[in-house]
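Teaching assistant here, posting this on the class forum so everyone can see the example we discussed in section. The complex has two components, and the goal was to see what a joint structure prediction looks like when all of them are supplied at once.
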Amino acid sequence: MTDFQQMTYEVRDNVAIFTLNRPERLNALTSVLHRELGQAWEMALLDDEVRAVVLAGSGRAFCSGADLTERGEARKRGEVIEREKRQLNILPARIELTGSFPGNNMFLEFDKPIVGAINGLAVGAGTMLIGAVDVLIGSETAYVADAHVTYAGWPGTGEALDITDQLPWGEVVRMSTEGVKTRIPASRLYQLGFYCEVVPPDQVLPRAIEVAAMIAAQPPEMVRALRRIARRSRDAALHDSLTYGDFERRRLALEAK
Amino acid sequence: MSAGYSAANGIATITLDGLDGLADAWARFAGDDSRVAVLISTGPDFCLGGPAPEGAFPVDHALDKPVIVAVQGRCVGTSLRFVGQGDIVIAADDAIFSAAPLTDGLPVEEMIYQRRRLPEPLTELLFMSGGLWTIDAARAFATGWVSEVVLAEDLANRAQAIAATIAGYDPTAVQLTKLILTTARDGFTRDALEQARALVPARLTG
């Protein structure tokens, strides 16, 4: 366990379990939580004991999005929460290693598999957060939605838009342009193949940990290679995906020698 | 022990017997006047996988004729390439799909050929779990990975019926349809449009 304030981080049997831990605020993302998530992704990537990550929320929600109260209160005090403090590293596509050479930081691709335990509602940034996840286990009573447009906002940037690769375009646009009017229920997300499995609310975390253990039981370098191949295949033509896959296979063969 | 091949009424039927003898079967299909192929297996399982022999898979032969894949029982490891590379996949209600253990080798082609067919979260879990997590016929149908699920005893007849429909159409139209859709799926929509504009008049007048 690490002394995070708004989340917990625990490594058990080669699986790192991240739990967003602000149940009274439906796990809304604050600047503190952004910073802690960023640290957690870095810890999980650099720790060889960690072969898979489970990302969960505590209480009845997975994540209700950005904590607007925090921003509003800061504004009343005449403060602005810096953009980077809000957006820093909540999504693990790229990990910046802040080492001993300032200005010369290294970026590592986060290539360990992430199992999302979607125990409750996911809204706004919470929905975008699950777009970065590989394997989703959902509660049968939870829904996802994107309320940004209702409040004259729009979805996040960069890696946040992974969701467009995972849900059919029509569903993404509908969710994000109808705002609070549209909630996509777990049954639909299961049907679309976005959720791998749907289980009762109290089974979500245990099942996610079981699924992560199946992955953690495989050779870790091969699992990471598959994740890199899957990610690079998203926007690539078939030929380029196969070429990249062959490169990964050769690299593993060389490393095995 | 080797794959069987028969052709009648424009339909080639390739019967799996493990992964042996397939290169010859696909080459015969590419060369004769068959218009569509049915790939099927006898016995309780479709195919349990194993090392992939040279030329065993449809893409190795650049086929411009549709391939129907009919899966019953277990479909494991390497044989997932048939599902990924086939054009229409149907399954018996007892079909179950699983990857091989990763210690058998990195399943590059098996995984990549599921793109545009099986949603990415399911693809990743199927392969990253090394066979510990499986997809059954009902789930495969719900996500559109397979197009139909039928009783095991009806599988062969249903595959032949679909093939007969396709074999009844103009062969040039069927081949162009497959080529153009394949280009759109594997590359870019733009290329598929250009290919269609170039190929259609040439084939129809030539």
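For the discussion questions: The interface with chain B takes residues 113, 133-136, 165-166, 191-196, 211, 214-215, 217-219, 222-223, 225-227, 229-230, 233-234, 237-239, 241-242, 245-246, 248-249, 252 of chain A (CB under 8 Å). The longest strand of chain A covers residues 7-12. Think about how each of these relates to the inputs above.
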